[in-house]
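Sequence, please.
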């Protein structure tokens, strides 16, 4: 499916920052190897998928996941078995030297994916940042909490005694003691200057599926922030096209979103993740 208002990438989707090394390897292979073919899959999902199955469910158990862009970005994913089938087809199709082909099995909003993971887990565990300003407020809140936890640890004499036995910690503790109080005071001033964020309006019924209503985690909940690579994926509204792979190697994905999520749920239950 293709979300409304999204663009389509055929073979030159803007790469997120993390793929720079992959791009260099691809260039080397296409230059040096006589029969190299590159298959590019934006997100591969399946049983034992650490970033997209195991880690999110583990994070559900210890806190809430923060998803920017209100979950409206496009998730372009492909089931691992479809990738394996495409590899076999590319390896047995002649005259493909130097070709690059994108693989995708389905495209959904990130909110749809995380809502299905939440349904597996049985409780709400995802909060959606409405805007960049809202996401920035969440990041600052997590940073303030982290500084508070660190100061609490520094005030525990037993922890300090044990930590000071580590050479690197011993060398830096004095500087930390001097600077952290100033940092905390700066955070307190910033907090005092900030006004309370206004309550976000509940969206109309027709957009709930693509833009879920705001959720507020408990004040003491641990918040899991996305890394830079994930933030780039959450922000993207690109829909990946596998038209070239279909034409060149007969690629036809067999696993749609519903089938994939059912398999992932069966795996999660079998592996005692839920």
């Amino acid at each position: 499916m293709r979300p409304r208002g999204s663009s389509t990438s055929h073979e030159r989707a803007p790469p997120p920052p993390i793929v720079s090394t992959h791009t260099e390897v691809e260039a080397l292979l296409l230059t040096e190897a006589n029969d190299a073919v590159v298959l590019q899959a934006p997100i591969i999902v399946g049983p034992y998928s650490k970033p997209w199955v195991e880690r999110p469910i583990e994070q559900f158990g210890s806190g809430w996941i923060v998803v920017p862009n209100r979950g409206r970005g496009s998730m372009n994913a492909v089931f691992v078995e479809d990738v394996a089938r495409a590899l076999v087809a590319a390896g047995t199709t002649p005259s493909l030297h130097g070709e690059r082909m994108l693989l995708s099995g389905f495209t959904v909003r990130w909110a749809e994916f995380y809502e299905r993971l939440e349904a597996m887990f049985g409780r709400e565990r995802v909060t959606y940042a409405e805007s960049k300003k809202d996401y920035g407020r969440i990041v600052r809140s997590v940073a303030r909490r982290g500084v508070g936890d660190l100061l609490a640890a520094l005030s525990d004499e037993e922890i300090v005694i044990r930590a000071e036995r580590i050479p690197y910690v011993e060398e830096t503790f004095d500087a930390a003691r001097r600077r952290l109080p100033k940092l905390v005071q700066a955070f307190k001033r910033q907090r005092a200057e900030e006004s309370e964020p206004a309550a976000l309006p509940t969206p109309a019924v027709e957009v709930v599926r693509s833009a879920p209503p705001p959720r507020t985690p408990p004040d003491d909940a641990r918040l899991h922030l996305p890394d830079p690579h994930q933030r780039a994926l959450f922000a993207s509204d690109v829909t990946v096209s596998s038209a070239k792979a279909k034409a060149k190697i007969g690629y036809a994905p067999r696993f749609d979103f519903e089938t994939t999520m059912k398999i992932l749920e069966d795996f999660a239950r079998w592996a005692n993740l839920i």
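Residues 7-64+75-126+236-270 form a domain with the Rossmann fold fold (CATH 3.40.50.720).
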